[in-house]
Amino acid sequence: MSFVHKKRLTLGDWVNYFMLLLISAASVFPFIYIFSVSFTDPSAYVPLKFYLFPDKWSLASYRYILSTNSFINAIKSTAFVTLVGTLLNLIVTFTMAYGLTKKNVDGRNIILSGVIFTLVFHAGIVPNYLLVKNLGLLNSYGALIWPALTNAWSLIVVKSFLESLPAELEESAKMDGCTDIGVFVRIVIPLSMPAIAAFTLFFAVAHWNTYFNALIYISDTKKWTLQVLVKTLIIDSQSNGVASESVAREGGQAPLETIRMASIVVAVAPILAIYPFLQKHFTKGVMLGSIKG
């Protein structure tokens, strides 16, 4: 017969739980406020009042921002950069990492040394800007995609993960007449699904939240990404984008605060929506790539 010993909570444990509860509340309440204000009817909104739940529910702010050309263009731009950029990131990262796992590839050590060098040393903002300018990528979506096809950290982690796969599977496939590309597509890719799911989330979040590169490379307001537009809306209430327009309502104009909060929710919601579908692969994919190697 086995007995489960229950640990008695000490004063220190209660203090730790209390502090964690406070930290959790401090982290969650801003999201609750943003969500509540975004769904608050403009006629019922009161400035400087904390909203745990809207006094009067309304979709007026969402209907408005989704009807403006500036916001629609920003969503299209961000979606395009995220989808195309993430797909290219996965292709380049996994193919290059797979090549670096082969010790018989000519120049492997030189390329790997270059990858590690970029992990430690960075060119800086000015050289990157001049490179993008000389390539003719300024004011185009290519400026947000091509310079960020992969990165040293992702390559090293994926390389470590691929090296953990059984080499016997590849050898058996080649004995059956499978080519190197066939081995990669039919053997390596299916076994790498946990890592692919994890890095899909990494790359997608990075592209969806791209701000600084879009700010310095994109000057055409019609090609602004969502994060740049939201920043302009929140920081500069007199911008030429959504913030300069207003929502008609009885008795005047809708408060800008409800539009700001709705824009934040729209900017965050897509990532929150896809995360649950990738969560089961997330931890496994990252741990497999970080432990081995």
From TrEMBL:
UniProt entry tagged with the keyword rRNA processing: no
Presence of keyword Ligase: no
Record-level GO BP terms: transmembrane transport
One Gene Ontology term, aspect cellular component: plasma membrane
UniProt subcellular location: Cell membrane
Topological relation to the membrane, as annotated: Multi-pass membrane protein
Main localization of the protein described in the UniProt heading: membrane
ABC transmembrane type-1 domain sequence ranges: 75-277
Keyword set, alphabetical order: Cell membrane, Membrane, Transmembrane, Transmembrane helix, Transport
Residue spans crossing the bilayer: 14-35, 79-98, 110-131, 183-205, 259-278
Pfam families noted in UniProt: BPD_transp_1 (PF00528)
Protein family: Belongs to the binding-protein-dependent transport system permease family.
Protein name (Swiss-Prot/TrEMBL): Carbohydrate ABC transporter permease
Protein source organism: Paenibacillus piri
